[in-house]
Amino acid sequence: MAGNTLSLTILSDNNAASGCSAEHGFSLLMETLESTILFDTGRENALLSNAAALGVDLSRTKQLVLSHGHYDHTGCIAELLELAPDASVFLHRAAFQQRYSIRDGIPKPVHMPEPALTALNSLPEQQLNLIEQPSVLSYSAAVTGPVPRRTSYEDTGGPFYLDPEGTRPDPVDDDLSIWLETRDGLVLVTGCCHAGIVNTLRYVTELTGSGRIAALIGGFHLSAASPERLRLTVDELNTFDIGRVIPCHCTGEAAATYFRRNLHCPVEPGYAGMRLEFPL
Predict the structure, then answer these.
(1) I want to staple 195 with a disulfide (CB 3.0 to 4.6 A). Which of 142, 146, 175, 202 is the partner?
(2) Is residue 278 part of a domain?
């Protein structure tokens, strides 16, 4: 990593560069001279194999931030904490819930896998940080906490429930994102953005007062979005000063294509092995 820079490396994604593995999951490493933050841990083994392929030393992780408690973002928590046993973990308390996706009447567990739960529950109290509001991680990084749901057209993006019978809809209250301040503007990183990308972007710009977004990176969970939602989302995003958008993971090919055709800024697909740098 160069001197005073923010370096980002995608370690788990649905797509991957040559020499890296793809999986239905997301993980992104953020490195500065001050700190090393891992955002999510992917679904299964891509985090570890891709880190090895890219020469990334995960034992240097100081902070692990979990965007929410779904299995495809929490699959390698136990392995990560074995490598970095002193890392502080940040998440919302709702991430521990049992939860399901129900399609055609068939419930599928989508909660955190048991080894991850065991690893988190075994941590010393001072290492586990339950986030209920915006929280500073370092001089350049902060986590949103729960994002207010204000738009009429954004939803969680899927048939999510807190019970296998489908009687208790899951609002995915634990959805968190990270923003980082750079000389080019804010870098906003999302996991699945179940709170809605517009809600999240509005909230972060309100909190920071920043009018410039250097990059918007992550999963936006728009694979099932209606044409109306996509249109309203793009119309709103085009009111912001955004340098580039990098859709990953659960955004969906149709949504990513719509973004490329209609956003006023460059749109490039994310993938495991992608590396980005921003001046601090």
Answers:
(1) 175
(2) no
Is beta strand 100-103 parallel, antiparallel or unpaired with respect to 88-91? unpaired
The secondary structure of residue 148, as a DSSP letter, is P
Cα gap 203→195, rounded to integer Å: 11
Contacts of 157 (CB under 8 A, 6+ apart): 192, 194, 221, 222, 223, 224, 225, 250
Domain assignment of residue 123, yes or no = yes
Q: What share of the chain is helix, strand, coil (3-state, %, to 5)?
A: 25, 30, 45
Tally of helices (H runs) and strands (E runs) in the chain: 7, 17
Question: Residue 21: is its pLDDT beyond 80?
Answer: yes
How many Å apart are CA 175 and CA 184, to the nearest integer? 26
113 occurs within a structural domain: yes
Q: What's the confidence (pLDDT) of residue 33?
A: 87
Name the amino acid, one letter, at 196: G
Angle (CA) 280 51 216, round 5°: 40
- What CATH number is attached to the domain comprising 94? 3.60.15.10
pLDDT tens by residue, 58-99: 999 999 999 999 999 999 999 999 999 999 999 999 999 999
Domain span holding position 28: 5-273
Task: Provide the number of structural domains found in the chain.
Answer: 1
Q: What is the mean pLDDT of the chain?
A: 96
